[in-house]
Every structure is written in structure tokens, then in C-alpha cells.
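Milestone M4 deliverable, item 7.
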Amino acid sequence: MKVTITFRNREKSFIPVEAEMITPDAIFQDKEIIVGEGNRSIPLTQIADLSVEGSPSSVHEVDILIRGDASRVKRIGEYMTGGSITIESNVGMHCGNFMSGGRIEILGSADGWLGREMHGGEILCHGDAGDYCASGYRGGRKGMVGGSVEVIGSVGDFACEHIAGGAVLIHGNAGDFTCAEMKGGTVIILGDSSRVCANMSAGTCYVYGSAEEMIPTFEKKGCIEHDGMAFHHFRGDVANRGKGDLYVARYTYLR
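Output delivered:
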């Protein structure tokens, strides 16, 4: 089944849209898609054109294509278990919240909390992602636990905070406190980051660029060669009795 959702130009486009029902699961269950626009709940068809082709035998056969401006549309793909969503524009906050299966591809950039607390599946973002990519929500103790997130651009602050599993690949730079409170999983940053892996207890993080303001409570274990490059190997965060592995190509210490 191919489902195409085309958002129309809204008169008050600054008002966010809560769209947690835009998932292959809801389409497969033939539910009416209701979204929240400001303080009102409305059918999706009031703000978008919807076309459906085919009839699926499982959620994995539902492919959603989203067109038009989705930069203020939040929670697309929340709790999805299968199928695919392709977003041709930028997308709003919380895309892929708690997803456990399927694939989301964003051809533009994503706002904050991309892949928040995801359990499985794949997210590919061709642009940049905002703060808290693949992290937990504020006050939470566990972020991403499974699946994979790949961002071709850069990400904001607190990416992969509380990450406990899965794999994250960031082609650009990552902001401040990347992988803070890391508990597991693998994170690869091809650019630079700062104050990386503060208070980590487990997991593996690679910084191919420069790790600025390195947390001093990491134990230097030596140097290794990986992927044709030399990396400094640190173990820690020893302030948390941590046994995580941090590999950085270059670093400066926190002053």
C-alpha cells in the first residue's frame, strides 16, 4: 500500500500539529487519522490531501510518503512497528518517538528529539537534527535502546543522552554533552563534539574529529588504529565507576 499525505499551506503555519497517528500501524488498522492543531483535534484531511493505493496484508507493506511543509508537524512515526515513512521536507519535533520497527527517511532536517527513546527500526535524516537526537526525554533515565539512527548533517546538544543500546552515526558535528550518561550502544561522530560521554557507564563512542573540553575523569588506556586512523582510547567515566570506551582522534581537556 502506498499512502501519500500532502500538507496544504496553512494560514497560521506557526501553530504546531501533533500527528502521532501518522504511522503505518494506524493506516493498516484503517483508523481515521486525527491530529491536534493548537488546542483542537481535527481530521488530518482538514489540513492535508490524502491518497491511498493498494491494500496491505500487514503493516510492513504500508509505505507513507509525506509532502508539503512538515516542519511544524510533530510526533510522526510515534510507536510505529513496521512499514516505512518518507518525508520530503523538514520535519518537526519527536519524529520516531518510541518506534520499534520500520524505517523513517527524512530528506530535509529534523527538529529536536529525533528518535527519542526508540527501541528498534531505522531512521535516516539527510539534513541536520536538533537537540536531544536519540536521547531520552527530560527527567528520563533511558534514551535510545535499539535500532539505528543516521544523520548526514550535524546534530545539536545532548545527542544520545542516556543511550542504552542501538547504533547512531553522525556524519557532521555533534553539540555539547553528546552521549552524556551513556549506558550502552555504539555512537560514531565523524566530526567534532564537546564534553563528550560525561558520566558514561558503558557503551562505545568514536569521535573522528576533535573532542573539545574532554571530561578529565577518563582513564587514558593508550592508542589504537581503527578504520585507517589513530585514536586515543579512554575508559570511563571513572567518576561513575564506568567502563565505557571512548575513542577520539584529537582532544583538548576541559579547563
